[in-house]
Specification:
This protein has 13 helices and eight strands. With 323 residues, it is mainly alpha-helical. The chain has a domain of 68 residues. β6 and β7 form a beta hairpin. α3 runs antiparallel to α4 and α4 packs across α6. The chain is extended.
Amino acid sequence: MAQGSRQIQSQAQQQIQTLSPQQILVVKLLELPAVELEDRVHAELLENPALEEGKEESTSDETTPAETSEGETEGDTDYDSLSDYLTEDDIPDYKLQENNRSKGEQAEENPFSDATSFYEILREQLGECNLTEHQRELAEYLIGSLDDDGLLRKSLESIGDELAIYAGITATEEELEEALRIVQDFDPPGLGARSLQECLLIQIRRKKQSHCTDPLLETEEEIISECYEEFTRKHWEKIIKKLGLDEEHFYKALEEITKLNPRPGASLGEAIGRNLQQIVPDFIVDTYDDGTINISLNNRNLPELRMSRDFTEMVEEHTKNKA
C-alpha cells in the first residue's frame, strides 16, 4: 500500500505598515539638502494660498471650553474645525520645524570660488565713479556687507558702529544713506536693497528712467509701494479695489512685476558666467573643551509657517454649513 502524501495548511500573520501621503512628503523633505529645502519652502509660500509666513498664534490662553448646541464641550485646540479631514498622520509642515538656533545666531558658511565674485564686479563699477575718498570707503564697506543675493540685511546704524570699531571710520547715517544710493545705482538693478520691497521698487524705478511715460510702470510702482502686504498674500481683488484699477490693466502690471529679479546678486554671477559656489551645511557640530559635542540643524533661512487665517476661516465656514 503506497503511503499517501499529506498537505498541511498553515496561517501566518504579517504586519505591513503603509505610509500616508503626508508621511511620504515628510520623508522627501527630510532628504533635501538645506539649500533645496529653503527653495522648496519659499516656493510653497508663493504657490500655496493656505500658507503664510509667521509664528503660529496660540489660542490656549484666550479661549475657554464652551458648550455646543448638542451639549458637547469644545476644546481649545488650534483649528479644531479642520479635524474632519486631518488624521493623526497629517502633520502640518510647520509643526515639524525645530527651532534649535538662538536668535541672531548665523550658520557657518564656506564660500569658495574659482573666478571673480560679484563683489569684485561691484568694486570695478565703484572704481568708475567720481567720489571722495570718504565716500569710496563707505561704499566699499557697504558692498562687502551685501549678502549673496546682493541685498543689505544689516541696518545702517549697525554698519556705522562696525566702521567705527573695526575700521576706525566715523560716518553719519546720512553719509551711509548717500553711499548706499550710489551702490543701488550699480547694475543689475536691485543691488543694495534692504528688503524685497525696496529691491522691486529699485528695478521698477530704473525702468521708469527709460520709459517715463509708461502708465504700466506707474501701476507697478503703486502696487509695490502702497499694497505690498496684499501683494505678498496674493490678495489681488483687494489691490484692484484699493487702487481703483481696471482688472485687465492690473494683471498686465502683475505679469511685469513677476519678471523682476528678487536676487540680483545671484543673477549677476550667472549673467557674467562666473562660477561662485557656496557650501551650506545641513547641520553644524560644535565641540567644547570638556569633550561634549553639540549638533544643531541649520534652519538659517527657513521661515516659520502657519495656516493662513483667511483659509482656516473659509474651511470653518464650510464645515459649519455643509449643506
